[in-house]
Inverse folding.
């Protein structure tokens, strides 16, 4: 396979992938049922009696009641998802499952990003250092040995 | 990983670990959510339902008298415990001219079980059905028993989570009543 | 039965006695092992070492005796014990009565102790001829010390044999959710074997630090222990997901509950370790890093136990509160402190020469893998303890739950899949662009094919389509490796670490793709079914055929019989447990290779009304989760077999010419 041809094939593959992804990402997801709206809302709220489970997950009677209330409000069609969540949160304080993004609470969002940056930043630093040290460790004596070995090699064109 | 880096990093790691340990050490077992509710001092949610036996229940039409709502379930142990206190409370209030009206709001239970429970333990006040938890959610009741007090003008005045006693309930309603008549008219 | 009468009440004293023997035996085992180690380090004749297996054996017998005593009490319904009063019942069926022993805190610690004593005994037996080796002695000493801690925990604050109130003749039985599915027999013990299994490599790591033999010897010793611990943890977690799916009725496998997170944390660091340890074996590098990963894996199992068993975090799995929290926290602190001090003390010897030439190499990929896994572990830990931090700082209660973890784990998972595309084809040391181009050619086409298949099946949304593409790509890369290996070595191409590892990769990829599909494309609808009137949803019809009722001593179950597409009737049920006054829903699932139809019956059920509310979930690709789990287990076993031995003179990093044959 010639280098040019291989490069072209890869370019075609990349374009194809991006095109297909773009097509899939933008195509309509179809109508969602009321139930799916209810599910989406109930995933954002904690069940008040069941130790951190969401309303969606929990089968406790309190969760059942709140699910019914969400279903009623969704069926009535007067409130948006956020308003329904806010309503339930006002009745059952502390039931919001997603930490807010302001104040100290935002740390829970910031720290993972910091950790990722530190992790890969650390890798970059370490590889830089390894490359520096790798070069520095070959002192002139080493270079002589390598040169001697290369000289013994009969066929200098044999790259492998 | 490298010596220089590790020497610089080790105090940071140590500090983070110590802080983490302190956080864990001061953490205490979780307790019940507090009894504050945004409803207190505000108009009670308008709820409607039916009564066990005959009749309808409409909270907004109870204006003019103190209303006590007791959310309960015939199988819950604290509910069973507090029942004699509620019977005493109902008797005492009935003796007053403008005594508070007591309603039991059924939480996740059947009519038959509730009727059997009242037949066995006494108490002849009205039992409000709440088949899909509308009333419970409107008030923010997650766990029974809970007792709510609503004043004659329809404002929520008090919420008690857990068992109540007659003396506590009567005492609080008396003092609130005195306060309102003192400041109101 | 006379035998039962005779034996009634015997379990308490026998169990207490066994625990006491266990404390003493484990303590003496540790002492003997340390003495032996010191003798051997001073070059003296090692006399105490032959005592070590005896004490370890005795501790193992004691742990066995304790758990048998508990089982005996439970099986004979010995209500003189508090634990049996709380978690036993005359009406519990035999199987769930057997598993009731680990249905609460005290009993589950007994199970933990048994698993730990078992691994101690296995280590002592495996190295019975090398007991005068200092490294082995120290390792056994460390395991014994951990064992002492858990024996003390069980003897003191978490005493399963405490006497109960007199005159009690029956109890409520275990939590209804724990007497609903056969998996309760497998999931906890296997998970505990995973947790406990990591004690062995941990002990060898500490032993290596103490003795100063921080080279690669201890790694080689513990390679298989680590692999099996990891395998058990993996299988335990997957069985947990399966149990959740079959029992809890919300149609999911994973809810980011603190207890689930506590099992995921050591799995993540353990997985990172299993990869990066290869760099150390091959290149002698990353010693401190590998030690840290292993020590954190063990610490995280203890921390997880503390977080979930002390009541500081809310969890559905949390058992009733007790004061073992302090013990576990102190033990966690000690483990971390000792680990750090030892690493600091041996710091000079741990420095390893050498460097990694290029980031585009197998070692570079392992490092990237480690960053991803560590960051993932950090995210999970942060999310789990963040409410505690906020509480400590501001005395406020907040929840960090599923939506948070979902949002952060999706990009990390995508990055891991992307890494799995490239890493398997990378050679050690350095890879050239041509080599990558050749080796990745077919895997990349697999990715495109997966994307096309996904689109044809109607998939939408960037995240899951990316997951499909990368899943296909990485699956292709793993398959390429397996195909090449089997072509070269025949059936031996399936065994060994690299090849078994690729099978594990295939399992992980299946799980990732199945999870992303089922999270993104689940359709659900609540149907109000009237008898004889079919309702349709998502291309299927559902018809209520009738109800059935089953009663036994402990419960009444009402089942709604729902025929799907006019075929077989599925029977989601609601079971009322009389002792507990608790309703437990049991879903019913129709499984096909493309999707599951998951039915739950919603309360209240009035069977005379001829109507039922049934919630229907249509969830794609669920079956592939379990197939993926099976592949991961299979791959782990295959990886534990010795692979083809490489002749020492063979080049280890030269490009394998085989790729040319494949790509052209």
């Amino acid at each position: 396979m010639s280098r040019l041809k291989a490069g072209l094939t890869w370019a075609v593959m990349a374009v194809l992938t991006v095109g297909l992804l773009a097509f899939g990402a933008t195509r309509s997801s179809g109508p969602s049922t009321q139930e799916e709206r209810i599910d989406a809302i109930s995933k954002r709220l904690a069940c008040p009696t069941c130790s951190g489970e969401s309303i969606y997950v929990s089968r406790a009677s309190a969760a059942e009641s709140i699910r019914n209330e969400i279903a009623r409000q969704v069926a009535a069609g007067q409130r948006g998802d956020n308003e329904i969540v806010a309503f339930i949160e006002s009745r059952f304080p502390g039931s919001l499952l997603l930490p807010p993004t302001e104040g100290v609470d935002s740390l829970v969002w910031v720290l993972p990003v910091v950790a990722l940056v530190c992790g890969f930043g650390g890798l970059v630093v370490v590889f830089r250092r390894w490359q520096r040290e790798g070069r520095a460790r070959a002192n002139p004596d080493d270079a002589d040995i390598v040169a001697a070995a290369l000289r013994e090699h009969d066929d200098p064109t044999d790259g492998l | 990983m490298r010596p220089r880096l590790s020497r610089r990093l080790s105090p940071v790691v140590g500090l983070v670990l110590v802080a983490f340990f302190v956080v864990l050490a001061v953490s205490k077992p979780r307790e019940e959510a507090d009894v504050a509710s945004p409803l207190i001092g505000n108009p009670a949610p308008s709820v409607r339902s039916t009564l066990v036996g005959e009749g309808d229940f409409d909270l907004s039409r109870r204006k003019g008298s103190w209303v006590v709502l007791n959310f309960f379930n015939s199988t819950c142990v604290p509910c069973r415990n507090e029942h004699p206190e509620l019977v005493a409370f109902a008797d005492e209030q009935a003796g007053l001219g403008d005594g508070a009206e007591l309603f039991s709001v059924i939480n996740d239970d059947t009519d038959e079980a509730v009727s059997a429970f009242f037949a066995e333990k006494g108490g002849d006040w009205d039992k409000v059905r709440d088949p899909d938890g509308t009333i419970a959610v409107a008030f923010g009741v997650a766990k029974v028993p809970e007792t709510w007090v609503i004043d004659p003008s329809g404002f929520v005045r008090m919420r008690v989570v857990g068992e109540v006693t007659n003396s506590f309930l009567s005492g609080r309603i008396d003092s609130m009543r005195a306060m309102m008549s003192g400041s109101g008219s | 039965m006379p035998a039962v009468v005779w034996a009634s009440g015997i379990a308490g004293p026998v169990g207490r006695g066994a625990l006491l023997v266990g404390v003493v035996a484990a303590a003496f085992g540790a002492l003997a092992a340390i003495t032996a180690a010191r003798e051997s380090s001073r070059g003296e004749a090692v006399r105490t070492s032959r005592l070590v297996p005896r004490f370890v054996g005795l501790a193992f017998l004691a742990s066995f005796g304790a758990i048998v005593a508990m089982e005996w009490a439970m099986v004979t319904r010995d209500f003189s014990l508090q634990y049996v009063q709380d978690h036993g019942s005359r009406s519990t069926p035999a199987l769930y009565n057997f598993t009731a022993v680990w249905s609460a805190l005290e009993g589950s610690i007994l199970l933990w102790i048994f698993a730990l004593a078992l691994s101690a005994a296995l280590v002592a037996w495996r190295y019975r001829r090398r007991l005068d080796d200092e490294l082995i002695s120290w390792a056994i000493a460390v395991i014994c010390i951990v064992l002492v801690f858990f024996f003390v925990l069980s003897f003191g604050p978490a005493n399963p044999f405490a006497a109960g109130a007199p005159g009690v003749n029956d109890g409520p039985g275990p939590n209804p959710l724990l007497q609903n599915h056969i998996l309760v027999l497998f999931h906890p013990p296997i998970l505990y074997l995973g947790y406990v299994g990591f004690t062995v490599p941990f002990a060898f790591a500490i032993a290596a630090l103490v003795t100063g033999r921080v080279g690669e010897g201890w790694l080689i010793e513990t390679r298989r222990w680590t692999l099996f611990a990891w395998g058990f943890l993996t299988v335990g977690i997957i069985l947990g997901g399966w149990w959740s799916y079959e029992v809890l009725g919300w149609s999911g496998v994973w809810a980011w509950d603190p207890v689930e997170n506590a099992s995921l944390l050591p799995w993540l660091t353990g997985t990172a370790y299993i990869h990066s340890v290869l760099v150390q074996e091959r290149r002698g590098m990353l010693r401190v890093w590998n030690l840290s990963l292993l020590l954190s894996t063990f610490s995280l199992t203890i921390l997880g136990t503390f977080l979930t068993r002390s009541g500081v975090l809310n969890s559905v799995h949390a058992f009733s509160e007790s004061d073992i929290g302090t013990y576990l926290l102190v033990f966690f602190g000690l483990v971390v402190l000792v680990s750090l001090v030892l690493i600091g003390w041996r710091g000079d010897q741990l420095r390893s020469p050498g460097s990694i030439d290029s980031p585009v190499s197998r070692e570079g990929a392992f490092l990237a893998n480690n960053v991803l896994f560590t960051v993932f572990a950090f995210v999970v830990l942060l999310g789990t303890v963040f409410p505690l931090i906020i509480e400590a700082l501001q005395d406020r209660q907040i929840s960090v739950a599923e939506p948070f973890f979902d949002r952060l784990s999706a990009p990390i998972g995508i990055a891991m899949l992307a890494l799995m595309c490239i890493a398997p084809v990378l050679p050690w040391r350095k890879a050239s662009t041509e080599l990558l181009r050749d080796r990745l050619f077919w895997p990349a086409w697999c990715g495109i094919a997966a994307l096309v298949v996904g689109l044809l099946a109607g998939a939408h949304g960037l995240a899951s389509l990316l997951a499909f593409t990368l899943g296909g790509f990485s699956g292709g890369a793993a398959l390429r490796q397996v195909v090449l290996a089997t072509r070269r070595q025949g059936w031996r191409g399936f065994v060994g670490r690299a090849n078994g590892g690729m099978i594990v990769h295939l399992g992980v990829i299946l799980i990732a793709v199945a999870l992303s599909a089922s999270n993104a494309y689940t359709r659900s609808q609540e149907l109000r079914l009237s008898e004889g009137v079919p309702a349709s949803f998502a291309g299927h019809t559902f018809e209520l055929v009738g109800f059935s009722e089953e009663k036994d001593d402990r419960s009444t179950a009402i089942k709604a019989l729902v025929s799907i597409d006019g075929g077989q009737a599925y029977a989601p049920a609601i079971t009322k447990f009389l002792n507990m006054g608790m309703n437990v829903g049991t879903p019913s699932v129709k499984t096909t290779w493309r999707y599951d139809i998951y039915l739950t019956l919603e309360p209240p059920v009035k069977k005379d009304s001829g109507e039922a509310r049934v919630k229907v979930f249509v969830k794609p690709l669920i079956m592939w989760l379990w197939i993926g789990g099976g592949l991961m287990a299979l791959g782990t076993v295959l990886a534990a077999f010795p692979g083809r031995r490489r002749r020492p003179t063979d080049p280890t990093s030269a490009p394998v010419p085989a790729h040319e044959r494949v790509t052209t």
Q: What stands out?
A: Chain A touches chain B at residues 47-49, 61-62, 64-66, 68-69, 72, 88, 90-94, 125-126, 129 (CB under 8 Å). Residues 154-160 of chain A have pLDDT under 50 and may be disordered. Chain A has two domains: 34-98, 104-152.
